[in-house]
């Protein structure tokens, strides 16, 4: 088991242009959800058109707490920077509510852009926010979110840095209000629209038929929205699908199995067929660069050993 790994790109502008080009036409843009540097490297090695930094998964892996508004801007912008620097694919980053009022939104947009993200997702929940597929979510007035979108658009330096506007109004206020909101957010200047948690294919088809900006579909296994094929989503009018939970749900399932077996048997013998190759993992993490550096700059192992023997002999003499 292994993955071909190439060097990450340090060109944020190029990544943003690549994302805009992918969204302009062609197949659905599929963005695997990433939540730490291991998941990011593994997903990036598959050469996706984009990666999605999931707030739920990032908060869980970084802080070990629910995605319920407990993470700060500082927590999250640091993760954005790490993920963007170590991957080639454009990174779409969850910016929650912007972490406060209008001035906070300006600060968040500028920080995410400077950290290397290709796009930021902002939502209209009240602060503190909650995961979009859990109960108890409340939204601010649509007019307040319109102001946030306008501030976000005005705050970016690179016009290719995309603003994704999300509404969580469907669950509490119904589909009509959610559709009204994304229309307003599009008029305010959002580049992409994200109507969270539609509850049927019929609703998704209607959303695709009425939206006048590129649409994001949120495919959460076990969530409120049906998980559809790429072809079906494209036919409904969606341009991008994010899969925020797929990676951490898969990792949790496998870790639970191997840890339970390890504790029960007292040994990892027999688990090889369930484990990633250690050599491949070392290469995934970039050890080939370390080995190449050592060959160029460090003493050869034989020379080091010989020098050590000579020093020992001299000391004995």
From TrEMBL:
SUPFAM superfamilies in alphabetical order: Phosphoenolpyruvate/pyruvate domain
The organism's place on the tree of life at top rank: Bacteria
Entry-linked Pfam families: PEP_mutase
Name of the featured protein: Carboxyvinyl-carboxyphosphonate phosphorylmutase
InterPro entries, alphabetized: ICL/PEPM (IPR039556), Pyrv/PenolPyrv_kinase-like_dom (IPR015813), Pyrv_kinase-like_dom_sf (IPR040442)
Signal peptide residue numbers: none
């Amino acid at each position: 088991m292994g993955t071909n790994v190439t060097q990450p790109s340090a060109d944020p502008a190029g990544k943003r242009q690549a994302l805009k080009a992918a969204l302009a036409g062609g197949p659905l843009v599929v963005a695997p959800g990433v939540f730490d540097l291991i998941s990011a490297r593994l997903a990036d090695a598959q050469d996706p058109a984009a990666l999605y930094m999931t707030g739920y998964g990032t908060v869980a892996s970084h802080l070990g707490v629910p995605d319920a508004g407990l993470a700060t801007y500082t927590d999250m912008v640091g993760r954005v920077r790490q993920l963007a620097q170590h991957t080639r694919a454009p990174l779409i980053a969850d910016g929650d509510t912007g972490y406060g009022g209008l001035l906070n939104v300006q600060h968040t947009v500028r920080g995410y852009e400077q950290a290397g993200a290709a796009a930021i997702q902002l939502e209209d929940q009240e602060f503190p926010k909650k995961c979009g597929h859990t109960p108890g979510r409340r939204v601010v007035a649509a007019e307040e979110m319109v102001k946030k979108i306008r501030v976000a658009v005005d705050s970016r330096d690179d016009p290719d840095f995309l603003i994704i506007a999300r509404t969580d109004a469907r669950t509490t206020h119904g589909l009509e209000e959610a559709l009204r909101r994304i229309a307003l957010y599009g008029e305010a200047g959002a580049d992409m629209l994200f109507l969270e948690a539609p509850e049927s294919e019929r609703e998704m088809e209607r959303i695709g038929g009425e939206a006048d900006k590129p649409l994001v579909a949120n495919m959460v296994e076990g969530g409120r929205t049906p998980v559809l094929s790429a072809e079906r989503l494209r036919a409904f009018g969606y341009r991008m699908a994010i899969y925020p939970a797929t990676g951490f749900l898969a990792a949790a399932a496998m870790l639970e199995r191997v840890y339970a077996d390890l504790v029960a048997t007292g040994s990892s013998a027999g688990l090889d067929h369930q484990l990633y190759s250690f050599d491949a993992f070392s290469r995934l993490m970039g050890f080939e660069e370390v080995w190449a550096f050592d060959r160029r700059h460090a003493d050869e192992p034989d020379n080091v050993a010989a020098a050590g023997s000579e020093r020992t002999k001299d000391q004995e003499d």
